[in-house]
Amino acid sequence: MEEFDTTSFLIIFIIAIVAPLIPELPFNLRLPSVIIEIILGVIVGPYVLNLLTLQGGLVFFQTFGLTFLFFLAGLEIEFNQIKGRPINLAIRGWIISFIIAILTASFLHLIGFIRSTPFVAIALSTTAMGVLIPILKDSERLETQFGKFVIGAGLAGEFFPIILISLLSSSNNEQTVPAILLLIFTVITTLIAVVAIYYRPPAFLEILSEHINSSSQLPVRLCILILMILVHFAHEFRLDLVLGAFAAGMIVNIATKSEVGKEVRHKLEAIGFSFFIPIFFVSTGISFDLSALTESTHTLLRIPVFLFLFLLVRGLPVFIYRHQLSKFELIELALFSSTALPLVVAITHIGVETGQMRTDNATALVGAAMFSMILFPVLALIIRGNGESVTSSSNSD
Question: pTM to 2 decimals?
Answer without folding.
Answer: 0.80
